[in-house]
Design goal:
Aspartate Aminotransferase, domain 1; Aspartate Aminotransferase, domain 2; seven-stranded mixed beta sheet; 437 residues
Length: 437
């Protein structure tokens, strides 16, 4: 049925006030933070909440070692340092990720080498990795993007063949599983973000996991000024053995995350229920492609990505990106908070186009670096096509339920029943969200 769209001045589909915020903060969370304040120990390398969180997360992931940090970015750097990456080394990174994945490599004066994505999973494509491996390559960073684990068996086999380390960027994938094993236990080292948007939120924070004691110790040095751990009761010598930073978390965060961890599986279950409902219903709308999830793994849906196929429904005369913008703007006006999560490949960012991270062209001008490295965004066509055709939805998190998801589906039907009214209008074929707010 033809209806006046909200973007044209009609009533919007999703009622105001129905969408809830994330994270869910309970009295247990408040009590956990209050416990820290009453105890009076609010920081420290061996603070009780930190030690307990590390033990609990290691057990949850099924690994021997865990290190809590102050951010996910710090945890990434600790992993790269932990596996022994040195100046001039090359590290394989997906072209689609948050740029901190590549930044962690630069922090070691090493060189990120980008690989295009699989068009179905949006994760790094194992079939494209080996062509990027050189005699300088030392590691592969896989990103379980949006909460879907990568093709780890294939990637680990490639790494074993070439003597490379595998680091999991599991910032989105708390509790996700691949062939019965949890993210965080699928490579040599792994990291998780505890940013307030994540499935396991802590405001800010990070977690490092590994089964290798040497990698763990190097990561710990990186997070503690490069100083070795001093046995309890001994005097700290203030003697740095290597480069390190202060990446320690605060106890209030540790306590809050421990409290949230008790509900992680339940919250993930609700996300999956919301996502499964959307996938089932949106699959019925021609031209809409919900996330693809292989049967051998679980998706924890930190983000729900929706792809459009205008050619399939007779709109091949419109640029895919123009079609996507028109649909995205119309859905946003209806009350569906769809948005972009990045808009071009990481190697297209200015730091890689200028090839200057620290000044004087470093680390690419470093004498240990290989010559001839260049970054051309057009070398990653699948990443570019994904950006042109898709947008994301965050609000499937556990605070929200099927009632809201049903309104989202209703809004999709309303927009797709009236496509001719918007997709040919140049006014809607561009970012206009700010004008709609």
């Amino acid at each position: 049925m033809k209806q006046k769209l909200a973007i044209e001045g009609g009533p919007k589909t999703v009622p105001d006030g129905l969408e809830k915020t994330w994270p869910i903060i309970t009295q247990d969370d408040i009590d956990a933070v209050t416990r820290v304040l009453k105890r009076g120990i609010i920081w420290g390398p061996d603070a009780p909440e930190k030690v307990a969180l590390e033990k609990e997360w290691a057990e949850y992931c099924g690994v021997k070692y865990c290190l809590a940090t102050n951010t996910g970015t710090s945890a990434l750097h600790a992993c790269v340092a932990g596996v022994g990456i040195e100046p001039g080394d090359e590290v394989i990174v997906p072209a689609f990720t948050f740029w901190a994945t590549a930044q962690a490599v630069l922090c070691q004066n090493a060189i990120p080498i980008f690989v295009d994505i699989d068009p179905l999973t949006y994760n790094i494509d194992p079939k494209k990795i080996e062509e990027k491996i050189t005699d300088k390559t030392r590691a592969i960073i896989v990103v379980h993007v949006h909460g879907l684990p990568c093709d780890m068996d294939e990637i680990n086999e490639i790494a074993k063949k070439h003597g490379l380390k595998v680091i999991e960027d599991a910032a989105h994938a708390h509790g996700a599983e691949y062939r019965g094993k949890k993210a965080g236990n699928l490579g040599d080292m792994a990291m998780f973000s505890l940013n307030g948007t994540k499935n396991l939120p802590g405001g800010e924070g990070g977690l490092v996991t590994t089964n290798n004691p040497d990698y763990f110790e190097r990561a710990r040095l990186t997070c503690m000024f490069g100083e070795k751990k001093v046995p309890k009761g001994n005097i700290r010598p203030y003697d740095a053995y290597t480069m390190g930073n202060n990446y320690r978390p605060v106890e209030m965060t540790n306590a809050f995350v421990r409290s949230q961890l008790k509900r992680l599986d339940e919250y993930n279950k609700r996300r999956i229920e919301n996502a499964n409902y959307l996938t089932e219903e949106l699959s019925k709308i021609e031209g809409v492609i919900p996330p693809y999830v292989p049967s051998d793994r679980t998706h924890t849906y930190h983000i729900y990505r929706i792809k459009l196929d205008p050619q399939k429904i007779g709109y091949g005369d419109i640029k895919t990106e123009d079609f996507r913008w028109a649909v995205q703007n119309a859905l946003f006006a209806e009350g569906v908070p769809v948005m972009e999560w990045h808009s071009f490949p990481v190697p297209g960012q200015k730091i890689f186009q200028r090839m200057d991270a620290y000044g004087k062209g470093c680390p690419w001008s470093c004498p240990y670096a290989r010559e001839g490295i260049r970054y051309n965004p057009d070398d990653y066509p699948e990443t570019q096509k994904m950006f042109a055709a898709s947008f994301v939805l965050y609000t499937i998190y556990a605070s929200n339920g099927l009632e809201l998801m049903k309104y989202y589906v209703e809004a999709f039907h309303k927009v797709f029943d009236n496509l001719d009214r918007i997709v040919y209008n140049p006014k809607y074929q561009q970012p206009v969200r700010a004008k709609l707010e």
